[in-house]
Structure formats: structure tokens, C-alpha cells
Design a protein that fits this description.
Jelly Rolls, about 5% helix, six-stranded antiparallel beta sheet
Amino acid sequence: MYSFTELTNPSRAEPQGFASDELMINGRTLSELVKGYRHLIVKGRGIHSRRIKTTEIPGRRGVWVDLVEDSETILEIQYMLTAETSAELRDRFQMLNKWLRYYGPSGFLEVSFKDEPEWIYYALFSDADDFEENSLSVMSSFKLLVPDGVKKRAEQGSTGAITLKDAYEVLPDRIVLTPEGTVNRIEITNGRQKLIMNGSYKSDTDIVLDFTGDEIRLDKGYTGISILSELELHSPLEEFKIRHGDTISAKGARVKTVRWRDERL
């Protein structure tokens, strides 16, 4: 997608060929990171598909719906890469390969687009188109797999009400608790669901529920001992979703912080 150039007001004019939806890595466009790169088209940012599993039942109309879930996202980027010499083209492909394999702190390629810079896709480079190199100007494409199918805002934190502008509900990134004295049982709730832990907990050591890694640990400086086994059987972390307006509360502990990210499909 390309923006229009303002001809009646030169001060508002964009550079010729400016792509308003160019891919960005670490806040910089690929055309800034790779010389000779030009963004053409992106696919996969519109209507999000769903995966539906069904079972046919003899004697009954239609089908029985077993499962409905959002699919992963495939972002396909079409681009042009140009150079003055064959050796220069090799160097520019090497730089493109390097950046597509760059992993951020999350362990994923963290990408955004110029028209939505605050929304991050946690992706993996998965595929590239085959093409014939018969000139020093190559048009091709590559694909990025977004396993969870969503894009996310920067992490937010609170000890009060949860705020979500776009998502109906999300899984929190992290909840940190401080035990109230020495206790053997801690109960956390979002008002609809509960997480219950049974063990031995003291006020000098925080408890971190890390939903991104399905982990609970006794923590000093965010490196500690796993106590996931102390979570009761019917208290699954992956089902403890938070919604706009929720307040996380606890018995036997004080909620030190709740961290989460708003999401869009």
C-alpha cells in the first residue's frame, strides 16, 4: 500500500514511493535496514480465519461442532530488491536473511507495520518464494508465521482494574504476589475463576505466576524455584483470562502487580 503525495502543499509531501504499511523490525523499516529493499504488498492483515472441527452424526442434519478456535496468522510480504552488481545483490540478500532470522527477547521475530507501529506480531520466518535471478532487480516474497495469530500492544501493568480497549479477554503475562506472613494456601481470583496453591509461603519471597511460560516460581529478582506442582489440579493457568474492568484479588497474599497486553486479530 502506498500513500499519496500532497502536490498543493510541498511541506506535507511524503517521499516518492513511500509505503504506508511497510514491515518494521525494532522500529525501523526493512528499507532502512536493507539497502535496495522496497516493500510492495502485504497479505494476512485483514479478516482472520477460524479453525472449525466437526463430526458427522448419522440421522441428524448437518454436523456436530467439536472445536472452534482462531487460526495462526501467515503474513506474506511481497518486495523488490535491487543492486548495482551481482556481488552487491548477494550482500543485500544476506542482510535480508539476517534480519528475518533476528530474534528479540521473546524468542520471536518481533515485527510491526508502519501504519500500526504500536502493535507487535511475535513471528517466525517460515518460507520464501523461489525466483530466477536473471537481473539485478528481483521481485519475490517471504512469509512469517504468527503462531498465536494475534498482534499485541506493549505490556501494561496495574494493581487495580484491568483496561482492555480492543480484546474481549486476554491471558495475563504475569501476576506477582507477596504472601501475607507465613501461609500454606493462596487463592487468586478474577471474579469468575480461581487459582489455588497449597505449599509453604513466606512474606520475604514473592510468588510469580508466569503465564507466558506456564510457570509458577518462588522469586527473588525473577529467578527462582519452580512451584508449579503446588497449583491445584483444577486451577489451569491457560484458562485464567482477564477482561476489561476486572480486578485481580488474592487471599493469603497481596497482589503486587498484574502485567498484560491488549490484543488485536
